[in-house]
């Protein structure tokens, strides 16, 4: 080492050997320490290297000892000495992994040659953008999934709304039974010139329902009236019996529209003297007690709930039965029987067996605010089955 360094200082090395010495000087602190000593010695001896050959002290036994013998400026000048190796983290992890698994002898070959899974080269090599074909295929798959899922979601929502409608009717049936138990078996009365929503307000007056309960239960969630309630917000409410009896004509129609009731209720029958009488509640019968209210027009009956071709009917026995309109003709006939009296009029019949379930804007005499009902020819409008 000393001979090579003296030759290096005297510029007496071949280019190949000189490159080797410079490489050692860059990586070995002992060589740099010896070069510094020889340079100082030759400077003091006016360039005579013979006096410096044997005066060199023994070099440090290790790099750590050599580092301890040089000053801070030498350490500061050499970044290689103080900076850790580039693969220090990888080797440390390998050592810890082998030690934890019982391999106390580090597998140097594995730890030195194992390539990291994610380097700049590997990440760059894996980059791949989406092609037009990829986007087209993904879009097609998305459309197919949407076509399969959306109808099922819509049918599920419609089924949930139908179940809620049946639950509403069942709760109203219990309130009617409680009312009849305190009034000699009679259901709430609806007086002449009163709309059928007075049937619900009298359940509130008797304490069978709170005003909020009566309002919530009196509309099917799958009806036009429920949509109107949502649009009107806080404006929709169920009027009181006193309000209904104190107004007529247009003001009465405004109160009916404000309530947005979607169920048709029984309004009683006319006795021989022409007086309106409430119907008796018979829990063992299958007589219709309440239904989804249809629109009764000049020439037709049309369901306003469940897509227009279905009507739920609550019987006195507490059962809710769906009428599949527009599909089964016999159920269209039963719809006529429920919403028209034996004379073909949308008004109360002349016997307890002649049941008329009146929509919210109808009373015992027919449509409220427009006089008595007249006999007209009715027919059911047929429409395709709709899912909402």
TrEMBL record:
Species, as recorded: Lacipirellula parvula
Pfam families tied to this protein: SBP_bac_10 (PF07596)
InterPro entries given in the database record: DUF1559, Pilin-like
Protein name: DUF1559 domain-containing protein
DUF1559 domain ranges (all copies): 154-198
């Amino acid at each position: 080492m000393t001979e090579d360094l003296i030759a290096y200082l005297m510029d007496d090395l071949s280019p190949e050997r000189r490159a080797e010495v410079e490489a050692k000087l860059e990586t070995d602190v002992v060589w740099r320490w010896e070069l510094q000593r020889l340079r100082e010695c030759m400077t003091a001896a006016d360039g005579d290297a013979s006096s410096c050959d044997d005066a060199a002290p023994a070099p440090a036994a290790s790099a750590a000892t050599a580092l301890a013998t040089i000053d801070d400026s030498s350490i500061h000048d050499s970044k290689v000495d103080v900076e850790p190796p580039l693969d220090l983290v990888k080797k440390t992890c390998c050592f810890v992994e082998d030690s934890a698994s019982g391999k106390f002898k580090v597998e140097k070959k594995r730890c030195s040659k194992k390539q990291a899974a994610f380097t700049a080269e590997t990440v760059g090599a894996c980059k791949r953008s989406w092609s037009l074909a990829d986007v087209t295929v993904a879009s097609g798959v998305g459309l197919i999934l949407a076509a399969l899922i959306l109808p099922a979601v819509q049918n599920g929502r419609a089924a949930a709304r139908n179940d809620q409608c049946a639950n509403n009717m069942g709760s109203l049936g219990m309130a009617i039974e409680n009312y009849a138990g305190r009034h000699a078996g009679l259901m709430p009365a609806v007086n002449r010139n009163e709309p059928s929503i007075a049937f619900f307000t009298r359940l509130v007056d008797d304490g069978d329902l709170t005003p909020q309960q009566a309002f919530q239960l009196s509309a099917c969630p799958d009806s036009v009236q429920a949509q109107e309630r949502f649009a009107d917000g806080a404006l929709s409410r169920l009027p009181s019996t006193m309000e209904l009896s104190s107004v007529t004509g247009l003001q009465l129609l405004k109160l009916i529209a404000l309530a947005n009731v979607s169920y048709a209720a029984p309004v009683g029958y006319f006795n021989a003297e022409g007086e309106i009488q409430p119907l008796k509640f018979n829990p063992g019968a299958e007589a219709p007690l309440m239904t989804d209210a249809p629109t009764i027009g000049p020439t037709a009956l049309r369901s306003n709930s469940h897509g227009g071709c279905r009507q739920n009917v609550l019987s006195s026995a507490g059962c809710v039965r769906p009428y599949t309109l527009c599909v089964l003709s016999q159920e269209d006939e039963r719809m006529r029987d429920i919403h028209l009296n034996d004379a073909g009029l949308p008004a109360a019949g002349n016997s307890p067996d002649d049941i008329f379930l009146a929509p919210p804007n109808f009373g015992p005499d027919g449509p409220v605010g427009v006089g008595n009902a007249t006999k007209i020819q009715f027919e059911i409008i047929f429409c395709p089955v709709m899912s909402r």
